Amino acid sequence: MTDTKNPQGEPLGQLTFDNRLLAHLPADPNPENYPHQVERAAYSRVHPKHAPAPKLVAYAKEVAELLDLTPDECRSETFTQVFTGNQLLPGMDPHATCYGGHQFGHWAGQLGDGRAINLGDVKNKCGEHWTLQLKGAGPTPYSRTADGLAVLRSSVREFLCSEAMHHLGVPTTRALSLTLTGEQVQRDMFYDGNPQWEPGAVVCRVAPSFTRFGHFEIFTARGDTELLRQMVDFTVRNDFPELGEPGRDTYIAMLEEVCRRTARMIAHWMRVGFVHGVMNTDNMSILGLTIDYGPYGWLEGYDPDWTPNTTDAQGRRYRFGNQPQVALWNLAQLANALYPLVDEVEPLKAALDVYRTEYQSCSQRDAAAKLGLPEFRPDTDADLISDLQQVLQLTETDMTIFYRSLADFDARLEDTEDDRSDLELIDPVRPAYYQEPTQGQQQRIAQWLRRYRERLIQEKVLTGLDQESRQERMNRVNPKYVLRNYMAQQAIDAAEQGDFTEVHRLLELLRHPYDEQPEHHAYFARRPEWARQRAGCSMLSCSS
Ligand code: AMP
Ligand code: MG
Fold first, then answer.
1. pLDDT of residue 1 exceeding 60
2. For atom 4 of ligand 1, which residue has the closest CA?
3. What's the Cα-to-Cα distance from 494 to each of 153, 358, 486, 489, 501, rounded to whole Å?
4. What is the mean predicted confidence (pLDDT) over 162-189?
């Protein structure tokens, strides 16, 4: 399609588009771009807003590769113009999709892509489809009272975190590029009547699809079973083709598969200490991808009750330890949304059980793997693991440093006796403590380490597990480097001054989160004290 407002772009490499949603689902008959309810349609065609002075901040080469884009192409002016929304390539057909959602436990009606615009689906050389989506490229019919824009701080956070998560092995949407629009955007970061002007930015997100639970909920809430069926059939065909032709059985199988994938995603979050912060059903991907990086955060001190989201500080619905439960609640909303097509409760309930079983097995396997154990043995490991949860909460204990350092604990597998003192035993994990543990705490920690040692001796007898292979196994699941909240904030502070080196450095560091990177050892450290109460470091709002 040729854009009348924007000049026709130079082709970027071999990018070819196959825009499936547009081809198969009905469009909003109202072509005007102002906030409105979009009935009996799945999307609205809309143009990105013109950016006065686009500038590339960073791009992710691995994501460019998925799209068959070369580094030279990514550094071209065309790339910057296209991925800030100023220029359309042949085959692009920009649109925003309609969805609803449960926010903080309550049905919120139509939400939709209020500041996301899909440019189209790239079909790459391998035949894979990748949807390109600009976040922050201007208002759409779903923007309600907001401006459709995004600021640099939240865009840096989304860009870096989605790539960091991918390299950690966590399913996630990807980020191709981060650009500045050259426009200033006003935000009241803490909703306290102090709006500030901030640099506007756009992230180009990339995923096989951006379909959310809310894409189904909206049609069911409106009683539009016909469009619900079209949406589900479309999703089965394009996102779950392995399930076969759409029909009642495949709808149930699809729900089971969403349950399975969601369980795996949540288990990964719990493994690496990620808190999403806004697990509303409109922020849940049907593909089990982490989506919509807003006021997310990383556990520093291990605390299941922690949430970075100040908007959720009261109820703490989306606190770290509640994420597995909330995911199930969200899946139940999806099951409700599919009910009109299945017309029977039992198979939907059975599908939700798939979540429970899958989550349990993933989380047990991960908990064992974090200790270097090849498998979870219920008779010994359930207690060992739950006791460790207590030990981690005796005093503020950095989750990432604790697990990573635990690999250095010498279990003295050859010795029958271990006469080390408490202090000697805990020495390897001491860097994880924000304050020196008291004597009583040292005793508890050492006591747990002695039990851990016994378990490792048992494992040596059973499977021959030695110190070196345990260490190697642990270092594959316990990251050395994560995007600590203050690290992202430092990169943002510099970027707001026009210095992007820290964004680039973190992008590089987080490409190899499990590797020792001696030149970056400074990032393997507890959160500095100045960051404890600083906005952006431990407290974030939904304002972005
Ligand atoms: P979120 O809480 O970020 O997942 O957003 C919830 C809903 O608000 C979604 O429909 C978003 O598209 C919409 N939204 C969030 N921020 C903006 C914005 N600046 N402009 C327009 N819509 C927005
Ligand atoms: Mg959202």
1. no
2. 283
3. 10, 42, 12, 9, 8
4. 97
Strand partners, 110: 100
| Among 125, 280, 112, residue whose Cα is nearest residue 210 | 112
Q: Of all atoms in ligand 1, which is nearest to the CA of residue 150?
A: 19
Q: Is 282 known to be catalytic?
A: yes
**CB-based pocket (< 6 A), ligand 1:** 111-115, 142-143, 146-149, 278, 282-283, 292, 294, 542
Ligand 1 atom nearest the C-alpha of 148 is 20
Rounded to whole angstroms, the Cα distance separating 139 from 119 reads 14
Give the span between the Cα atoms of 235 and 227, in whole angstroms. Answer: 12
Average pLDDT over residues 473-487: 97
CB 404 within 8 Å of CB 370: no
Instruction: Give the number of domains in the chain.
Output: 3
DSSP state, residue 527: P
Residue 226 in domain: no
Q: Is residue 219 part of a domain?
A: no
Cα-to-centroid distance, 63 and ligand 1 (Å)? 25
97 with 160, same domain? Answer: yes
pLDDT band at 11 (very low <50, low <70, confident <90, very high): low
Residues 177 and 255 in one domain: no
* Nearest atom in ligand 1 to 116's CA: 12
Alpha-carbon distance 129 to 122, whole Å?
Answer: 6
Contact 458, 374 (CB under 8 A): no
Ligand nearest to the CA of 285: 2
The model's pLDDT over 35-82, given as tens digits with 9 standing for 90+, comes to 999 999 999 999 999 999 999 999 999 999 999 999 999 999 999 999
Cα distances (Å, whole numbers) of residue 321 to 81, 299, 304, 508: 42, 11, 4, 30
**Short-list 156, 163, 168, CA closest to 65:** 163
**Residue 417 DSSP class:** -
Range of the domain at 402: 375-544
Q: What angle do CA 412, 416, 418 make, to 5 degrees?
A: 55
Q: Are residues 364 and 436 in the same domain?
A: no
pTM over 0.85: yes
Residue of minimum CA distance from atom 7 in ligand 1: 111
Q: Which of 28, 113, 121, 282 is catalytic?
A: 282
Looking at the structure, do residues 364 and 397 belong to the same domain, yes or no?
no
Q: What is the DSSP letter of 431?
A: G
User: In 3-state terms, the chain is what percent helix, strand and coil (to 5)?
Assistant: 45, 15, 40
DSSP state of 43: E
Neighbours of 379 (CB within 10 A): 6
Residue 202 reports pLDDT greater than 70: yes
Q: Is residue 218 part of a domain?
A: no
| Residue 7 included in any domain | no
Q: Are residues 126 and 27 in the same domain?
A: yes
- Of the candidates 539, 497, 540, 536, the residue with the CA atom closest to the CA atom of residue 198: 497
What is the rounded distance in angstroms from the CA atom of residue 40 to the CA atom of residue 1? 24
